[in-house]
């Protein structure tokens, strides 16, 4: 079978098993390896003297193996002692195999990297990275920092480094600069390929990250722009989608007039924005910000009442069952006098209770459904869901919100969405993180 140039299988050391592990890291092709960035770096460019080592530092040392033996001190352990002439260090391995035990022989020279600790018996390292040096050839030190990557079970740092090195060699010249040259120049940003190379292979002087910052700035800018383009596409796509116009306001007026308090000017402003959105044949996608106690729930209740008055269902999704129960109590005190039927869908419902509730949801008898993740279970069928309210969106995954939206889709019709948060979000950050949503704030 002919391999594509960007195919993972064309890399040395990648078979079906390694390919599956890479997929766990969202790596599906060689180019993805280039964008799998280090989480930190290790300085393996120098050798430290054992006699000069302090505790609780990362260090690299070389020494001759003086002793290698398996000992039992409550548990099996491989203990190796090395010396470089300035001192003696103990290496301890609690997990090891026969190959390691046989390979670490007295008289061999070893280079190891790890975190030091001091005990009554001297300086030690627990499970250091190591390599046995060949006395017949020069063992060069790297001239760049050693990257440490996010990984998954069964995929070692050494394996990832090897694969990324191959991908850099194979694919770096094929990386396309999506950022226009003029913009990159105005921002003082270098080419993307150079930024990737510098990030994976920074020079030693970059340990303080000062000289690495231009490369990081280039990658961060690229990611932010890609994020905003994605948000714009989502927002534009939503304008091309169809939703049910929700315009009836008789129940809303009864709800507002029956409240034991008057809405603030800020609440009235936000209510008007939401009502305007709901009246359109495109889905509302609005972020509602407000401190705890600012009245976001009553504004959400107004939106739900409009949907119910128009003959459609609504859901309110909360991150915890406790918060869902609190929302149910608040909505009931406002909705019961209006004849709006609510339901609380949670994981701990007894089978008979859940059966009655799911039947009510499927028939449309239950008009406002409150719950957690249980709202998008496969067994839950909605009759005509037209409004989705999500509380504390940042505590849900994007996939979870969209799985609920997808359940509500009917012949291309998608529900209106109202996202609530009590977390203060600066305007610029809201534009970045929630660029696909219109923004409303209850400020009083």
Short précis:
This protein is α/β, with parallel strands linked by helices and 444 residues long.
Query: Any idea what the CATH architecture of the largest domain is?
Result: 3-Layer(aba) Sandwich
State the helix count: 14
Nearest-angstrom radius of gyration?
Answer: 30 Å
- Give the CATH topology of the largest domain: Rossmann fold
Which key features would you list for this structure?
OB fold (Dihydrolipoamide Acetyltransferase, E2P), seven-stranded parallel sheet, 14 helices, elongated, 444 residues, 3 domains
Describe the protein:
The structure is a single chain. This protein is an alpha/beta fold and 444 residues long. The protein has 3 domains: 8-40 and 148-230, no CATH class; 50-141, OB fold (Dihydrolipoamide Acetyltransferase, E2P) (Beta Barrel); 250-442, Rossmann fold (3-Layer(aba) Sandwich), CATH 3.40.50.300. Helix content is 36%, strand content 21%. The chain is built from 14 helices and 15 strands. It has helices spanning 16-24, 30-34, 98-103, 157-171, 181-186, 192-200, 213-239, 250-258, 265-278, 296-309, 321-335, 351-363, 398-408, 427-433; strands spanning 40-42, 58-72, 76-83, 88-93, 109-119, 122-126, 129-132, 146-148, 285-290, 313-317, 342-345, 368-371, 385-391, 416-421, 438-442. The strands form 3 sheets. It has a 7-stranded parallel β-sheet with strand order 11-12-10-13-14-9-15, with helices on both faces. A 5-stranded mixed β-barrel has the order 2-3-4-6-5. Strand 5 (109-119) and strand 6 (122-126) form a beta hairpin. The N and C termini lie far apart (66 Å). The mean pLDDT is 87.
């Amino acid at each position: 079978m002919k391999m594509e140039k960007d195919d993972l299988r064309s890399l040395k050391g990648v078979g079906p098993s390694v390919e599956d592990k890479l997929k766990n890291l969202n790596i599906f092709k060689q180019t993805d390896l280039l964008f799998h960035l280090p989480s930190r770096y290790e300085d393996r460019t120098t050798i430290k003297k054992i006699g000069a080592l302090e505790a609780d530092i990362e260090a690299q040392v070389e020494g001759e193996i003086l002793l290698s033996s398996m000992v039992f001190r409550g548990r099996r352990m491989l203990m190796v002692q090395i010396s470089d002439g300035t001192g003696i260090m103990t290496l301890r391995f609690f997990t090891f195999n026969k190959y390691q035990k046989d390979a670490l022989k007295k008289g061999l020279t070893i280079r190891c990297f790890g975190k030091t600790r001091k005990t009554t018996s001297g300086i030690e390292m627990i499970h250091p990275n190591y390599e046995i040096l060949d006395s017949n050839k020069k063992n060069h030190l790297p001239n760049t920092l050693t990257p440490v990557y996010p990984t998954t079970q069964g995929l070692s740092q050494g394996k990832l480094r090897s694969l990324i090195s191959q991908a850099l060699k194979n694919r770096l010249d094929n990386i396309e600069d999506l950022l226009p040259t003029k913009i990159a120049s105005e921002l003082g940003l270098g080419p993307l390929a150079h930024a990737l190379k510098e990030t994976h292979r920074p020079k030693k002087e970059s340990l303080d990250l000062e000289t690495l910052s231009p490369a990081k700035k280039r990658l961060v800018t690229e990611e932010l722009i890609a994020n905003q383009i994605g948000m714009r596409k989502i927002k534009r796509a939503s304008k091309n989608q169809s939703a049910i116009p929700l315009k009836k306001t008789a129940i809303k007026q009864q709800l507002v007039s029956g409240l034991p308090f008057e809405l603030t000017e800020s609440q009235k402003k936000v209510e008007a924005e939401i009502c305007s959105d709901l009246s359109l044949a495109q889905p509302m996608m609005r972020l509602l910000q407000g401190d705890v106690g600012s009245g976001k729930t009553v504004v959400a209740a107004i939106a739900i009442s409009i949907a119910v008055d128009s003959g459609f269902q609504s859901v309110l999704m909360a991150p915890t069952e406790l918060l869902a129960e609190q929302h149910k109590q608040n909505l009931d005190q406002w909705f019961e006098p209006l004849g709006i039927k609510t339901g609380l869908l949670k994981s701990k419902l007894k089978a008979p209770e859940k059966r009655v509730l799911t039947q009510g949801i499927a028939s449309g008898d239950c008009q406002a459904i409150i719950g957690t993740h249980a709202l998008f279970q496969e067994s839950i069928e909605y009759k005509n869901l037209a409004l989705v309210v999500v509380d504390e969106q940042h505590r849900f995954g994007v996939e979870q919100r969209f799985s609920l939206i997808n359940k509500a889709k009917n012949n291309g019709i998608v529900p209106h969405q109202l996202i609530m948060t009590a977390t203060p979000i600066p305007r610029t950050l809201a534009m970045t993180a929630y660029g696909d949503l219109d923004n409303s704030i209850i400020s009083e």
